[in-house]
Amino acid sequence: NWSGGKIEGVSAASNSLVLPPTASTSLSGGLHILRARTWDNQGSVNWVGGDLRLEADAAVDNRSIFTATPTIGVVLKVESDGSPLARFHNNSAGGQLGLNGSGGLSLIGNVAFDNGGSVDANLGTLRIESPGGDFGSYSIGAGGTLEFAPPNAVARVLTGATAISGGGLLRKLGQGTLEITGGYAHSGALRIFDGTLNVSTPAPGTSFNDVGLQAPGVWTGDDDFTVFQLAWSGGQIRSTVAGTSIVVPSIGTATMTLDDSNASAILSSRNLVNQGSYTVNASGAGGDKIWSLVGGADIDNLGGQFEVAASSSNFYFSCIGPGSRIDNRASATM
Prior knowledge:
- This protein has strands at residues 5-8, 16-19, 24-27, 32-35, 38-41, 44-47, 52-55, 59-62, 65-68, 75-80, 87-90, 96-107, 112-115, 118-128, 137-148, 155-158, 164-166, 169-172, 177-180, 184-186, 189-192, 196-199, 205-208, 210-214, 218-220, 224-227, 229-233, 235-237, 244-248, 253-258, 264-268, 270-274, 277-282, 289-294, 298-301, 305-310, 315-320, 325-328.
- The chain is elongated, with a radius of gyration of 23 Å.
- It is built from no helices and 38 strands.
- It has a 19-stranded parallel sheet that branches. Strands 16-19-22-25-28-31-34-37 form an eight-stranded parallel sheet, with no helix packed on it. It has a six-stranded parallel sheet with strand order 23-26-29-32-35-38, with no helix packed on it.
- The chain is mostly beta strands.
């Protein structure tokens, strides 16, 4: 068992630390430093305490079970000294990285994280800032939260056949980009707070049960979106292909909130089709609140209820460029 301290080698390319298939170990106590050595995990690791730092291009090659079980208030970190080849590899040959504690696990942006296996945020908050490749899968338990927080100019692309599944909370943070080009089977809440989330799956359309978008977040992609509950507080909903739609179905509700802290929202190259209930709340003592329709985007109020409540501030629709418009159909109410 490893309760802190340093395990060193001369070169991570030639020196290894092997935990064989029949073995198990526990990480606890203080800081764990792996330096100039590759940890080949074929056994079972239970990580309860103390961060893991990879130095001098050290790496973890996880080919079996690696589970973090931090208690509430404890956030375990995988970090590096900035060496360029430091990485945590969740290997496609049996790699299972799990979070099953009420605390958190963070993969810091200075260490690469490559996922070819399965990542399970069953309980607690798993945060991924790292760059790296991603053709494995992520699942989020009912008591779990999965956060992608790539920094500016970093794009993480999820290409797995079922890239994300489960009923827990998915959050997009950080100024970078998260692209989901694999399968999307996530049924829980989605929150987009910063950067760009691009959903462009192999399917023509994707359904979302509960979405919250807040400035400066951007939600885009080439899928048609169906949203049963939408809370939009500034930011942008866009499309990479003109003419795609975002549909609020007949049993759906959408609320846009514009105030002095989030005074504008943009719908770009995507048609909003409202078949349910859509409410815009505009308030604040500052300037005008503006919803801009750009690049041929339009609002099609198709049999639904569309209401604007401007209590203490003027609210404007701004149609920019050809094709942007608002249609209130015969069976709809605005």
